[in-house]
């Protein structure tokens, strides 16, 4: 039995489609990522799975329970962390946790084992009001509250958005620990580097699933010859690369530009180096590079909306 | 030599000019808590300056002081030639500001937003009309002049917000996490706009949580616990800490932070 299953789920808000015939299966114990920008439909899918929103069409189950018929059962087995901070700002850290435990007719003590690692980081602030916590601390408290009734499926909507790189790294480490305890995790993120930390991901754009696969398979599916190009000044480098006759696409990628060519050629790097040197760039470094998930995602996006 | 007609972007960015932002031992205390602890740096005209730090490191407080929104406790700073202690109103008039959270009025049309911001910054009607046409043309949004901003895709909104923040030709624009939530292609298109503005001489002061974007800055400062712990070009920082990526530089510095709340 899959932990989460969506079959042809569609949902529109007025004339705006938020989910278009989305079908996905998440296996029990899997760490599954929903990857896409704002407006891709990630939150809509979470709200349908948590029984907070009815789909216009299609069916969905969580832990084998139908989201419409068995909504009460789902609410007991799912832990949900909404994208918008939704704990009680006027209650302290400890009061929030006790409240969520009480709502699910359990106690903090009973399930403390599951949240211990995370809650210990919050312990120095346990008497602080939740509204006065930093982004990283709020995120940890929200995760504790989502876990305190020992859910089998954890649904996390953009838990790391707006959070600094250190807290993001700690958060993903916590997800790894929870996964090791057998909890199924569905997590959404706009950060492409986090996609690589999932076992499988769905790439979403404007309510549609562009592709579902493992990070490795997504990287390997990139269809073009790809080069990392470096020179002293990024902006003129990008402009000259975009004007190069055989360029298929060119995007800045940290300290390099990633250039995909329309045709593979054994002397492509040498020809490109000569072209850039002729344009006055120095020092020019051109090297073949393996595609990242972000390269694959941008290629899929460009196919969707040609020449935006 | 030929300062009026720089041969290329790189040379124009390197052209000597007085600093647009100067900061000397700038400090802000809230009671016993030192949010910004004696920070000092200068930002040159046309420079893209990345202002990084962990949550709670003091970035927002520092930025609010530089935008004339919050009075410093001590130290000295000037922005676009104006003093942060004595001339905060003049600073507000001479800077541009854009963040992911605050940009345009969703219930006004594209044209109305431009007219509103032009008016707020004291531009005359004829100038606003002229600039509106040029701006919409440059962004390819001519057909959307009468569209409500709320119905535009997020990426378009951000590009429009950026251009509107530059309408009064400020010497410096402050960008507070401008690319949050947009798709990876739109994020890069946004950087094309940043590069163009910098090449035209506008100073860019930007915060971001995307470490690849830190690489696109001319120089990057990293705040930890209210202090600037590192400030150099991305290549210089990576050399200094002996690591391969800006992500590692950031993690190395921010992991020792005490004020993470």
From TrEMBL, chain A:
What are the UniProt keywords, alphabetically? ATP-binding, Nodulation, Nucleotide-binding, Transport
**Molecular function (GO) terms listed?**
ATP binding; ATP hydrolysis activity
- InterPro entries for this protein: AAA+_ATPase (IPR003593), ABC_transporter-like_ATP-bd (IPR003439), ABC_transporter-like_CS (IPR017871), ABC_transporter_ATP-binding (IPR050763), P-loop_NTPase (IPR027417)
The ABC transporter domain, residue ranges: 4-231
Q: Write down the CDD domains for this protein, in alphabetical order.
A: ABC_DR_subfamily_A (cd03230)
One Pfam family recorded for the sequence: ABC_tran
Give the top-rank taxon of the lineage listed in the UniProt record for this protein.
Bacteria
Family indicated by similarity: Belongs to the ABC transporter superfamily.
Please state what the protein is called: ABC transporter ATP-binding protein
UniProtKB/TrEMBL annotation, chain B:
UniProt entry tagged with the keyword Nucleotide-binding? yes
Q: Which UniProt keywords apply?
A: ATP-binding, Nucleotide-binding
By its UniProt entry, which InterPro entries does this protein fall under? AAA+_ATPase, ABC_transporter-like_ATP-bd, P-loop_NTPase
Q: What GO MF annotations does this protein's record show? A: ATP binding; ATP hydrolysis activity
For the keyword Nucleotide-binding, the answer is: yes
Query: Known SUPFAM superfamilies for this protein?
Result: P-loop containing nucleoside triphosphate hydrolases
Which residue range or ranges hold the ABC transporter domain?
21-250
Q: What is this protein called?
A: ABC transporter ATP-binding protein
Native species: Hymenobacter montanus
């Amino acid at each position: 039995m899959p932990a989460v299953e969506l079959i042809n789920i569609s949902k529109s808000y007025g004339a705006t489609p938020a989910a278009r015939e989305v079908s996905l299966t998440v296996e029990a114990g899997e760490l599954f990522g929903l990857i896409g920008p704002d407006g891709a439909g990630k939150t809509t899918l979470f709200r349908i799975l948590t029984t907070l929103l009815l789909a216009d069409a299609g069916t969905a189950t969580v832990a084998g329970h139908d989201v419409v018929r068995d909504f009460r059962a789902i609410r007991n087995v799912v832990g949900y962390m909404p994208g918008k901070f939704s704990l009680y700002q006027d209650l302290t850290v400890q009061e929030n946790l006790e409240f969520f435990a009480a709502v699910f007719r359990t106690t903090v003590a009973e399930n403390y084992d599951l949240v211990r690692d995370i809650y210990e980081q919050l312990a120095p602030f346990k008497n602080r009001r939740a509204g006065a916590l930093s982004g990283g601390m709020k995120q940890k408290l929200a995760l504790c509250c989502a876990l305190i009734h020992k859910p089998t499926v954890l649904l996390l909507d953009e838990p790391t958005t707006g959070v600094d790189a250190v807290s993001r790294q700690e958060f993903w480490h916590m997800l790894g620990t929870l996964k090791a305890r057998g909890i199924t995790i569905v997590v959404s993120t706009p950060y492409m580097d986090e996609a690589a930390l999932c076992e499988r991901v769905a790439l979403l754009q404007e309510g549609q699933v562009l592709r579902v696969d493992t990070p490795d398979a997504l990287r390997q599916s990139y269809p073009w010859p790809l080069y990392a190009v470096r020179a002293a000044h990024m902006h003129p480098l990008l402009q000259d690369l975009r004007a190069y006759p055989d360029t298929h696409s060119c995007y800045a990628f940290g300290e390099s530009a990633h250039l995909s060519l329309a045709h593979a050629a054994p002397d492509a790097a040498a020809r490109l180096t000569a072209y850039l040197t002729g344009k006055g760039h120095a020092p020019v470094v051109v090297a073949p590079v393996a595609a990242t998930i972000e390269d694959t995602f941008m290629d899929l996006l460009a196919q969707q909306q040609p020449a935006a | 030599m030929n300062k009026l007609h720089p041969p290329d972007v790189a040379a124009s960015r390197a052209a000597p000019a007085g600093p647009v932002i100067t900061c000397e031992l700038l400090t802000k205390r809230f009671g016993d808590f030192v949010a910004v602890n004696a920070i000092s740096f200068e930002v040159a005209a046309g420079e893209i300056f990345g202002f990084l730090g962990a949550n709670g490191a003091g970035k927002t407080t520092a930025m609010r002081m530089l935008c004339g929104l919050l009075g410093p406790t001590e130290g000295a700073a000037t922005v676009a030639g104006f003093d942060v202690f004595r001339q905060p109103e003049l600073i507000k008039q001479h800077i541009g500001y854009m963040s992911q959270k605050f940009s345009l009025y969703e219930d006004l049309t594209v044209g109305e937003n431009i007219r509103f911001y032009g008016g707020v910054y004291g531009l005359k009607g004829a100038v606003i009309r002229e600039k509106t046409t040029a701006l919409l043309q440059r962004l390819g949004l001519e057909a959307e002049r009468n569209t409500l901003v709320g119905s535009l895709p997020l990426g378009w909104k951000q590009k429009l917000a950026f251009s509107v923040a530059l309408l009064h030709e400020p010497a410096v624009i402050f960008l507070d996490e401008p690319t949050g939530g947009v798709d990876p292609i739109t994020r890069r298109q946004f950087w094309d706009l940043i590069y163009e503005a910098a090449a035209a001489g506008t100073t860019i002061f930007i915060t971001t949580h995307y470490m690849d974007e830190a690489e696109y800055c001319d120089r990057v400062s990293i705040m930890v616990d209210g202090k600037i712990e590192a400030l150099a070009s991305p290549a210089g920082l990576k050399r200094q800490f002996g690591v391969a990526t800006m992500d590692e530089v950031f993690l190395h510095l921010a992991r020792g932070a005490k004020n993470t709340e």
